[in-house]
Amino acid sequence: MDRIIKLGSDMALLWTNYRGAYLGGIANTLILALVATAIGCVIGLLCGILNTIPYNDYTPKPKRFLLKLIRAVIRIYVEVFRGTPMVLQAVFIYYGLPYFTNNTMQFESLWSAAILIVSINTGAYMAESVRGGIISIDPGQTEGAKAIGMTHVQTMTSVILPQALRNIMPQIGNNFIINVKDTSVMFIIGFTEFFAFHRYITGVNNMYFPSAAIEMAGYLCMTLIASVILRFIERRMDGDDSYELASEDQLVMAAGTYTHPAKGSPFDEYNKEGGELKRVPEKRKGLKRGGDRL
């Protein structure tokens, strides 16, 4: 119990002395995660759409070759960036670019480097999520859209993507939460986010565990708040749970919604005077019993 009280007092002391640094690190982390996730979603969306363009044996050979090449490039990109740690990707991109160009090309801003690294990593994960969301839609909807003359672009933008977006929304939120935590590796290139401030503070006062406890609480608060917001967005996308049968359209009368036309209206099938059914004289064509025509 004494150690817990001591930990609480040390955390309070650190927060009092370095509150501005901690809050600045939280702000940098959230901005980086939000911007990189948005850019990564755009990259993943483009890759997912390009990866699902259909072709068959009747497709012209140049177009078929181009689509196969695009899919091969996307597959290499996805496998490389999903199969390697982000910290090594940061090293190769930030330090490798000047190395291979003999320092003629290098990043002028740490923000641009960090956003590029996290965005490319997120795009690799989102590419597969978007592809899975697109192929999860019933193929009959694509066939129906083509049957009424819609092009592939119109089918994707008006029929498939609105439904796929709802399916991949949890994965978008999941990637954002992962980015909030994984931006902690950006200290390797000198970017000062939440975890980088923790390293700086512990280097000054040598209170590593109390500062780590503050970091743990900070990351937990950020991810919990993000989860609540994302769940709210998902519920808004689902719409209302109660539905009413639309019966105002005179051309679409569903079972159980038909009402008899008012008496005297052009659609009334009863006689106004006696309530008898109007009998329309039938015109018969053909032969009588005796063989004479009518």
Beta strands, count: 0
CATH structural class: Mainly Alpha
CATH topology: MetI-like fold
Shape: flat
Largest sheet properties: none
- Distance from first to last alpha carbon: 111 Å
CATH architecture descriptor:
Orthogonal Bundle
* Protein structure class: mainly alpha
Mean pLDDT: 81
Put simply, the count of helices is: 9
Q: What is the number of independent domains?
A: 1
- Please estimate the helix content: 55-70%
Please, could you describe this protein's structure?
With 294 residues, the protein is mainly alpha-helical. The protein has a single domain, classed as MetI-like fold. 66% of the residues lie in helices and 0% in strands. The protein has nine helices and no strands. It has helices at 2-50, 61-82, 86-94, 96-100, 110-135, 139-147, 152-182, 194-205, 208-238. Helix 1 (2-50) packs antiparallel against helix 8 and helix 1 (2-50) packs across helix 9.
